[in-house]
């Protein structure tokens, strides 16, 4: 009689001599996996029920004793192997149908972080900002875009109503994505993320809002119009957008790649969509500024984070974040498309592609260089960058098809690593951040199971369907969104209009100014890492 005993913690095994424990262990490990054997055997919570998508079968063992009346046969070993492997393969991405099913489950789980569609919740935003929750206003806009792409790529419209509600709720008083209640954390990049989401809705033919509401194209134009206004561009550093919009915000004295990258990206896409050369001229001018100030390295094509106006932008912070590179690559790809393959844009797209894949996809797996080298070093903002990079690079292959053979295999390898580590939580499908580890990292060790991490994997899996999807439309190739080239009100720096001061007002003006500036510096958390 043969007895096989499995312990989740110690993994003690007893087999007859006809099958060595070593050979069984090699079978137990999935092919090409770096995960230790014991990570496949986890105790599961007593309550395995969950609403939402139908669950795939999952077998997980805390302690199991199997008694056989005769020596283990090869078939019995294979059955044990199958039982042990089930937990490690919740999400399947081997066929388009399996990709859609996996994306559907990931979309459901991601929506659990969102409270904007619940009683008392605020549509369009994730819980926050700190200390009320982990997420700043801009990440809600990024989430909206992730679900717009999800709908476009999978055809699942389950969340369209929620996304439209959130997108429209946050447009602000002037319908330019500058709501007054988010002034304290209102950066050009924050506004820009919402503008890019509106642009994406227009390009993907997301259902139009009601006629009495602002339309997607008009919202993207409104954001661009406020960004291009002279009030946002000063002579320091020879031009360029500052990071923050209101002068009282911490970070107002910083000009960075992401703020100008958003402006460049939206402009390039508006140029292609509307065939209006003014947008392209400004995109070109913004690229030239980024190149001239040194945020784009002339030798290695790395994108540096930014610099301070006090030093005339000579103190360049050389932190390299993946989304800085990806947002410029996508914008450059749109300019390549708009210019019908102009050589200089082809060259820029090619060099940025090579640098991004080399730096941020070591071994083909997404890796956030500035912070992922140490557990716990990534902020909630940084924990969401991988998803944007996957989404943006997938679209690059549509508008600049010569990149397809380089980019798509890497995105698939990266996504395979992403889903392999989605084995956490009571459901056995919670996703973490450290894709290259090949194993889920316990949130008790490093709390990386939030909205950004879930959004990353949803974006990566959905983007695998890019080859089946139609490319971004224009107003001459099927676009259905109405524009308004004068939308947004132009000059808007996020400050409230001030009435003339009275004598009584002047008495407390100094104290009030001190409190406002001090409060902003004390409460605002920077998105960038400063060394």
UniProtKB/TrEMBL annotation:
Compartments reported by the entry: Endomembrane system
Membrane-crossing residue ranges in chain numbering: 507-530
Record Pfam families: Glyco_hydro_76 (PF03663)
Principal cellular location given in the protein's record: membrane
Gene Ontology cellular-component annotations: endomembrane system
EC number assigned by the record: 3.2.1.101
This protein's UniProt keywords: Glycoprotein, Glycosidase, Hydrolase, Membrane, Signal, Transmembrane, Transmembrane helix
Top-level taxon of origin: Eukaryota
Region annotation (Disordered) ranges: 475-498
Molecular function as annotated in GO: mannan endo-1,6-alpha-mannosidase activity
Gene Ontology process terms (BP): carbohydrate catabolic process; fungal-type cell wall biogenesis
Family note: Belongs to the glycosyl hydrolase 76 family.
Database matches in PANTHER family: MANNAN ENDO-1,6-ALPHA-MANNOSIDASE DCW1 (PTHR12145)
Name recorded for this polypeptide: mannan endo-1,6-alpha-mannosidase
């Amino acid at each position: 009689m043969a007895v096989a005993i499995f312990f989740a913690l110690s993994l003690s095994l007893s087999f007859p001599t006809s099958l060595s424990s070593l050979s069984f262990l090699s079978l137990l490990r999935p092919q090409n996996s770096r995960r230790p054997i014991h990570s496949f055997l986890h105790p599961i919570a007593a309550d395995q029920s969950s609403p939402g998508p139908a669950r795939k079968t999952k077998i997980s063992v805390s302690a199991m004793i199997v008694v056989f009346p005769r020596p283990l046969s090869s078939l019995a070993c294979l059955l044990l192997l199958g039982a042990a492997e089930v937990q490690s393969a919740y999400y399947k991405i081997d066929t388009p149908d399996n990709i859609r099913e996996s994306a559907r489950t990931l979309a459901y789980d991601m929506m659990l972080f969102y409270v904007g569609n619940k009683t008392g919740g605020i549509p369009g935003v994730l819980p926050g900002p700190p200390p009320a929750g982990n997420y700043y206003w801009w990440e809600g806009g990024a989430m909206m875009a992730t679900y717009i792409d999800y709908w476009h790529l999978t055809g699942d419209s389950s969340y369209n109503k929620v996304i439209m509600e959130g997108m429209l709720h946050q447009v602000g008083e002037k319908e330019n994505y500058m709501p007054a209640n988010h002034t304290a954390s209102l950066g050009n990049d924050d506004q820009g993320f919402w503008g890019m989401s509106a642009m994406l809705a227009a390009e993907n033919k997301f259902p139009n809002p009601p006629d009495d509401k602002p339309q997607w194209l008009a919202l993207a134009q409104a954001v661009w119009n406020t960004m291009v206004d002279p009030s946002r561009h000063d002579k320091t550093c020879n031009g360029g957008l500052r990071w923050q919009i209101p002068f009282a915000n911490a970070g107002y004295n910083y000009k960075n790649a992401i703020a100008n990258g958003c402006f460049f990206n939206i402009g390039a896409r508006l140029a292609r969509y509307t065939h209006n050369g003014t947008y392209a001229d400004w995109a070109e001018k913004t690229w030239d500024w980024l190149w001239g100030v040194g945020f784009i390295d002339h030798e290695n094509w790395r994108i540096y984070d930014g610099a301070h106006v006090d030093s005339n932008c000579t103190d360049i912070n050389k932190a390299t974040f993946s989304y800085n590179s990806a947002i410029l690559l996508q914008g450059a790809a749109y300019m390549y498309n708009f210019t019908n393959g102009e050589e200089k844009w082809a060259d820029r797209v090619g060099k940025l592609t090579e640098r991004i894949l080399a730096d941020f996809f070591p071994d083909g797996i997404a890796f956030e260089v500035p912070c992922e080298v140490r557990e716990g070093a990534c902020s909630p903002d940084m924990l969401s960058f991988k998803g944007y990079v996957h989404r943006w690079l997938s679209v690059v292959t549509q508008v600049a098809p010569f990149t397809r053979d380089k980019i798509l295999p890497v995105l698939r390898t990266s996504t395979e690593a992403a889903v392999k580590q989605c084995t956490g939580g009571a459901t056995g499908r919670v996703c973490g951040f450290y894709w290259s580890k090949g194993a889920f990292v316990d949130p008790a060790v490093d709390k990386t199971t939030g909205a950004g991490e879930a959004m990353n994997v949803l974006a990566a899996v959905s983007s695998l369907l890019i080859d089946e999807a139609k490319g971004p439309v224009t107003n001459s190739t099927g676009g259905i969104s109405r524009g308004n080239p004068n939308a947004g009100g132009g000059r808007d720096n996020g400050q409230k209009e001030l009435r003339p001061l009275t004598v009584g007002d002047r008495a407390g003006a100094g104290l009030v100014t001190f409190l406002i500036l001090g409060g902003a510096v004390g409460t605002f958390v920077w998105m960038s890492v400063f060394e």
